[in-house]
User: What shape does this take?
Amino acid sequence: MAATGKCASFRLPPLPTIGEIIKLYNLRAEKQLSQNFLLDMKLTDKIVRQAGNLRNAYVCEVGPGPGGLTRSILNAGAADLLVVEKDTRFIPGLKLLSEAAPGRVRIVHGDILTYRMDRGFPPHIAKRWEDEPPDLHIIGNLPFNVSTPLIIKWLEDISNRTGPFVFGRTRLTLTFQKEVAERLTASTGSRQRSRLSIMAQYLCNVKSCFTIPGRAFVPKPEVDVGVVHFTPLAQPQIQQPFKLVEKIVKNVFQFRRKHCRRGLEMLFPESRRLELAEQLLRESDVDPTLRPVDLTLSHFRALADTYSRLCAQNQGLIDYDFREELTENRAKRRADRSKELDSYT
Ligand code: SAM
Assistant: This one.
C-alpha cells in the first residue's frame, strides 16, 4: 500500500480536461444519483485546501464521478487515495487518472453507505482518540440524496469509534445543500438550529468553510452548496449513547415552535407523562418555557444525563415510543367502540 514513502513529485502529468473526460466517456449526469459535477479546478482546489495539509496523507474520496476533486486531492500530495464510486460509467475515467498517478489511487466500485472503511486503510495509521487526528481525511462533493443519511451514519460512527473512526478522529470535508450546511453549523437561538445542529456539534468541531453558487456545477442544481469541515472532538460534549441523545433531540425538535417541555413530555408514557417530564426538567435545571432552538449543548447534556438516570430507575422507559402508544390506544378505542355497538344488536 502507498503512503509509506514520500512522493517527491505529486503534480499530475498533462491529462484531458474533466470536460473532455465527460465527452470521451459520454458521462451524462444521472439525476437519480444526484450528479452535479464541478469542472472548475480553482473551486476543487479550494475545497481540498479546507481539509488541511494532504502531503503524503491517506484520503478517501466519496463519489469521485469524472474526477475533478480527485485531481485536486492528488495535486495536493495525497499518497494513498481511495475513491468510492457507485456509478460504473466513471470507472474507466478514474482508471486513467490512476495510471497518471501510479500507486496512489485505489478504486472501489461500491456504495459509500455500506462500504467498510475500517478495512480500507492499514491499521498502523491509527492514532489514539485523545491524540492528534490521524493523517486520514474524508473528502467529497456528496450526492445530495446521500449526504444527510451519510453524515448521521458517520456521526454515530464517531460516537462509537467505528467505521472510518477506528483510526481515531478522522477529519471530514464535505459538501451539502446550503440549507443543510447552515443547519449543521447553526448556533443556539438561530433560525436554522435543528436536530442536525445538536447531533453534529456535540460530537464535532463543525466549521462552515464557504458557499459554492449552484451555477458552478454542471448541471446546475436548484440550490447553492456549502462546504463543511468536521473534526471529531476528543471529549464529546454529551457522554451518553448516540441513540439516547438522538431520541431526546428528536422529541424536542418535533414541536420546534412550542416550549421545549411539549416535546420532552413525549419521552414518557401517558400515565406518568407530567410527573416524569417535570422531574426531568427540574433535575436538569432547564427552563420548561425555553424554545427548542434556544437550548444550548449544556442543556442537552443535562437532559441526556437525567433521562439516562430516569431510564435506569424506570424499567422499559428507554424503549418507550409515544407513537406506538398512540397506535395501541387507537386500536383499543376502535375495539371498545365495536364491542359497544355489538351490545346494541
Ligand atoms: N465528485 C464529483 C465532482 O465533484 O464533480 C462528482 C460529484 S456528484 C455530486 C456525486 C457523485 O457521487 C457521483 O459521481 C455519483 O455517481 C456518486 N454517488 C452517488 N451515490 C453514491 C453512493 N451511495 N456511493 C458512492 N458514490 C455515489
In short: The chain is about 40% helix and 15% strand. The domain at 242-325 is CATH 1.10.8.100 (Helicase, Ruva Protein; domain 3).
